[in-house]
Design a protein that fits this description.
5 strands, 2 domains, binds zinc ion, alpha/beta, 47% helix, 222 residues, Beta-carbonic Anhydrase, Chain A
Amino acid sequence: MVRPEPSEATAMDELFARNRAWAERMRARDPEFFTRLAGQQAPRLLWIGCADSRVAANQLLDLDPGTVFVHRNIANLVIHTDINMLSVLQFAVEILRVPQVVVCGHYGCGGVRAAMADRQLGLIDNWLRHIKDVYDQHAAELDGIADPGRREDRLVELNVLHQTLHVARSTVVQNAWADGRRLEIRAWVYGLEDGLLRDLGYRVRGPEEIGAIYRMMGGGVT
Ligand SMILES: [Zn+2]
């Protein structure tokens, strides 16, 4: 077994000490909090956001554990072959029966910035390629924005809009709608500089909004 360096051990001790203090504060506020949560979770939304350490879903919504089901990856992408994301989506929609799915991007996203550049970064280039595809679809608009910062901000927004539509096009969401469930997919962007969320005003509420080629009937393959 490798013994941790003294400084590393101290840093880890501090994390555990912070955890104990937090659990104590939560219990002081609500003695039944953890017992209740251990029994069941009832999140009110599924959050699909960026893995960036500055965009912590519960913290910026000021919500306790148990309220938000979370999936995060670099640049909040919804890729239809990503079994990790799809499993989270299925569990949230079919088992937890969340009424809302939010895709939340953020300004100043390193993933989006890297996708706008032409330097190879390794494996991640294959992931960021999905953002380049979004850029390519909106090249006329984006190339027309002279200010690089504004162009990047706009790509952040367009990326969120595309990923929101990808959620809606999933069979998981289409099946929920076919069952008569109310399920809304929303697009938000978070500002690192002011800590505020913006609603992009785009929401998908039914199969008529996802494009005919993506609409599928249930019932499996025959
Ligand atoms: Zn990001």
